[in-house]
Write a structure and sequence with these properties.
The complex is a heterodimer of chains A (107) and B (160). In chain A, 67% of the residues lie in helices and 13% in strands. Chain A has helices at 2-12, 14-23, 30-34, 41-53, 72-80, 83-106; strands at 28-29, 57-62, 65-70. A three-stranded antiparallel sheet of chain A has the order 1-3-2. By secondary structure, chain B is α+β, with helices and mostly antiparallel strands. Chain B has helices spanning 26-34, 36-43, 130-159; strands spanning 5-8, 15-22, 49-55, 62-68, 74-86, 90-97, 104-115, 118-126. Chain B has an eight-stranded antiparallel sheet with strand order 1-2-8-7-6-5-4-3, covered by helices on one side. Chain B is globular. The chains are: A alpha+beta (107), B alpha+beta (160).
């Protein structure tokens, strides 16, 4: 549960969401990512650390450079996050429909 | 596959939207939200029974419900007030789970006619904060765990 909450908090931050959408297209170094933001480099580094801890970002070493890319599997998990909530409402509304259909035929 | 019930919850926002189309005339869909006896029927299932202690379906009315497990133990209680009550169109109400830290949420129900036999519900839920919304979104996970646990218990009891 804690891990899931962390992931959700990670993507609740607008800068971190922007980082994720940047690296969705291509692997990038921390420097290249930071050049897209007006904030200080250490701030971007902090965001990268959080995203990496939550496994939303993966690192690959290429020579002296570290490239960041999106962990698609984890992103899928985030999308699945909402599914139990949706299902709960779906089941509830299915029941509503069944109950009300009885009233329909009674009329 | 296209889902009948859709939930839209954008990251970092403090609201969400639930939409659903019903094979029911608009009047019946609305009645299912206004008549306490009917609400009790569709809010109950094999694992829990919901009772409406109060449902005053009118402007400035209030409501309170409680849900019990199959052993009759109350596991959940919620209440709120109704701000707008426009038959076959709209209900605006607050929702608060009692004895929880989840705060108060505002719920706007909009009912729409599609044709004589079908209708649509648009439910807009606004929370006090992003964190609060995300916590509520996580609740079904916990409930799922509890349900699995209950089922396990039932099975074990049968083995005895």
């Amino acid at each position: 549960m804690n891990l899931r909450r962390d992931v959700f908090q990670a993507i609740a931050d607008p800068t971190r969401r922007a980082i994720l959408s940047l690296v969705a297209f291509q692997s990038m170094t921390a420097g290249a990512i930071a050049s897209n933001f007006g904030t200080a480099r250490p701030t971007v580094s902090k965001h990268l650390a959080i995203l990496t801890e939550c496994e939303l970002l993966e690192q690959t070493q290429n020579g002296r450079e570290i490239y960041y890319h999106l962990n698609a599997k984890k992103m899928k998990e985030v999308a699945d996050f909402i599914e139990p909530f949706r299902k709960m409402w779906d089941e509830r509304f299915n029941k509503l429909e069944t109950v009300m259909k009885k009233y329909k035929t009674k009329k | 596959m296209e889902h009948k019930t859709k939930v839209t919850a954008e990251n970092g926002k403090l609201d969400l939207v639930i939409t659903r189309e019903f094979e029911l005339p608009l009047e019946l869909l609305f009645r299912a939200h206004a008549d306490p006896d009917i609400v009790e029927q569709w809010m109950s299932n094999e694992y829990s029974t919901t009772k409406l202690l109060k449902l005053e379906s009118k402007k400035h009315g209030s409501w309170q419900l409680e849900t019990s497990d199959p052993q009759g133990k109350v596991v959940f209680r919620a209440n709120g007030v109704i701000h707008e009550f426009v038959p076959d169109k709209k209900i605006t109400r607050t929702f608060e789970m009692e004895n929880t830290p989840f705060g108060v949420q505002l719920e706007v129900y909009e009912f729409e006619k599609i044709n004589d036999d079908s209708s649509k519900l648009n439910l807009h839920v606004i929370y006090e904060s992003v964190a609060q919304r995300d916590q509520v979104l996580q609740l079904p996970f916990t409930q799922g765990i509890n349900l699995a646990h209950n089922r396990l218990q039932e099975t074990v009891m049968k083995l005895k």
